[in-house]
Structures are given as structure tokens and as C-alpha cells.
Predict the 3D structure of the following.
Amino acid sequence: MYNCNNNNTAFVSICKDSRFTLCHSLYLSKILTVEWLSTLNIYLIVISNPSIVNPGPENKSGSLSVYYQNVQGLIPFSYLADKNPKFDETKICELQNYIYSALPDIIVLNEIWLKPTINSSEVIPSHLYHTFRSDRSQNTHPRDCTNPKKFRENGGGVLISIKNNLSLITNEIKLKCKAEPLAVEIILEDKSKIIIVTCYRVGTLGIENANEILSALKVLTRKKSVRKLIMVGDLNLKGINWDDGVGNNNVENVLLNGFAECYLMQCLRDATHNKGGILDVVLTTSINSLENIEVHTDKLYCNSDHYPVTFDIKTKFKRIKLPKRKCYNYSKANWSALNAAFQSTSWEAIIDCMDPESAWSNFSKILYFYVDKFIPKITIKNEHKPPWFDAECYQKCKEKDKLHKKFKAAKTVSNELKFKHCRKEFKDLIKTKMRANLCDPQRNLLTKKFWSHVKSKSKSTRI
């Protein structure tokens, strides 16, 4: 007899199994669809933004950091008349310590007191910066026979250094001017230009010198495609009330009127000299393009009677990422295996009956094959600091800065003595480290490290 109940039960069971299988299949299909869509989105992002797979050598940035200061001479005052003066070692150490630590994009210095016999790379590291410089000369300050003591024949001088890793074109703008302005043109990717100009003006000079400075500024403002004009420097305008736009004498009023004609506005409102007064200027035609303007009254970047000034220039540019360098790590080389490989190689058979070029090609291939096999390579980090500036120097410098800040807050005799003692210790430590770095174990008269140091501080690659 046909059993209907059993068949119904079997049919229901089959339906349940089929529904479960179908739901399970749909669930897996949904998961696979989500995963496929996620994978597809990732591929689309990668295709539309190739920098994910290949970031390239450049990074976009939005502002150029600027450090400015009147350093009041990088050589001792007693050596001003010498053709080959020595450096003020403490100032040089402090300045370079700040540069290596902060790495500002643009450095502007006034009153550098340098001579043509001094290379710019001795002050600003040439592997990091390209430096433009204008020293005092008869062209910038022609001698006045009627007033020989009008200004010092030596001293003065200005420089502008721009970092090498910026994807920018920089050119010096030659100015025929009987004053000390130095102008550098920065060309951006869209061909627009930013002009950085600095000038040191001796406070005792009169209308003639002021008109020379203003004529140079007018030439710069008339240049094509100039987006921003920024003037930074010590003009010794201590009598100007920048809020009211009124000077204390005729020269200051002439300069104020000239700045207004060039649409230059002063950005500083705090005293820039340790005796008070705004002697330095940060003038710009685009005041909204500057930010983070600060006069550092409590920091000692380079010992001077003028405070350091820092600010940022808002602009779009690219920062080039320098490649890391690889070299052989000879301390971990397998010399015995390398010598065995060389001895077991039949060099005569490799280079026999060959012309010199083919013989050298075969010889060098086998030579470097064994060298790469038995001598490991290490990646040299892109260190900015010189080898002699180690952790001990860094800690001593931090201690010196801390004591200086404490002395500025409470000017007691005790705080002053502690700061000066620490500053002397820092100077002596730097001397010791530099001397030790230039000495080789071999007792040669002139060591390899000495020549490496000379090479790094000179334009030529050979002596």
C-alpha cells in the first residue's frame, strides 16, 4: 500500500535541505561579492593613485620655514682687518648646531663679517644648502673721502641659503646698488616667483643710502610673475612707530614712504634687539602668505645682540626625497672565503687573447660577483649632522640652552656664571670632538680624514 505520510516527510526533508543549501550558497555568494568588490575598489584606488605603489622621490609641502638673524659677526672683532681671519668658534658651533637640528628651508643672515678668502661652505653646510652671499666691498659701500669714518671698511655682509632638497629653481638677481641688498628669485612649478631680499643698513648712513635701497626694491617689484616679495634684514630703524607709520627722522620717513610705494608691510611688532626697539624688518607684499612669525627672545641660536626671527612662507612646492646610499660593510666580510674564491679562479683563461676593454669587462664582472657574495652591504642613513656632533655634544648643547633660558628669566649673577661656564664647556667639547674626528690611527702628517674635511669645505673635489 502506498504510504503517503512517509513520502510527504521525505519531500519536506528534501525541501529543507535544498533551502539550507540555497541559503548557504547565497550567503557564500554574498561574501564573495563583498570581497570581490573590496578587491576591485583597492585596484581602482591603486590605478587612480599610482603613488601608493610607487611613492616616487618627492613629497608635497605647504610652507617654507625661514630663519633670520643679525649674527653680529662670525669672526672676532679684533680680526676684522685680516685677509684670512679666524672664526668665532663658539658662534659657528651654535649656529651650525641650530641648522643641523632645525634644518630650516631658508636661512638669512646679516652682519656676517666674512671675507672673500672664506668659503660659504665653512659656515653653511654645502651638502644641505645652496648659499648666495654678498660681502662688504667698495661697490656696496664706496669710500667717502670727505668722511672716512662714515662706516667701517670691514664688517657687514649678508647671505641667503636655500635647502638643496626643494624642487625649486633659485637664481640670484644682480642689483647695481651702492648698498648691501642681496636678492634671490625662487621659481615655483607654475612658473610664478617668490623673491627673498635681505639688506643690512648701517644706522649712520643718510638719504643717499636709503634711496639706493628703495631703488633696488622698485626694480624687484617691477619684475614679471612675482607672486610675493619678502624683505628681511637689519635696517636699524629703531625710531619708527610701525603701528602709526611714523618715523623719528627724515631718513626713516623716506624709507616708510618707499615701502608703501612698493606695497611692503611690516610683520614684526616685538623688539628684535636686546636693548629694545624693532631694528629688524620682515616686510612683504602679501602679508597673508606669512605665518608663525616669532621673535625668539629666550633662545640662543647664535650669540648676538639681535634676537633670531623665524616664520613660514605659505606656498606649494615639492620636497625631494634623497635616496639612501649603500656601501660595503668590510668589518663583516668573509675574507677567507673571498681569498679562496680568487685563488680558485683561472684569471689567465678569463682575460687571455682579449682586447683590453673585453678583458676588463670579464675581470670586473667576476671580481664584483665575489665581492657582492662575500662582503655584505649596509644602508647609510641620510644623516645631516657631522660625525663629530654626537650625543654628548647634543646633550651639552641642550644643557647650555636650558641655562641660557634660565638666565634670561632671572638675570642673577649666579645664573649668568653657570651659563657662561656651560657655554665654554660646550665650545671646548666641540673642539675636542672635531680634533679627534680628523685624526687617523696612523701617525701621518696629513691624514685621510683631514683631506676629506678639506674637500667637504671647498668647491673643488681635488686639492
Observations:
- Confidence is low (pLDDT under 50) at residues 1-12, 30-34, 39-58.
- The longest strand covers residues 58-70.
- The CA atoms of residues 90 and 448 lie 26 Å apart.
- The longest helix spans residues 4-48.
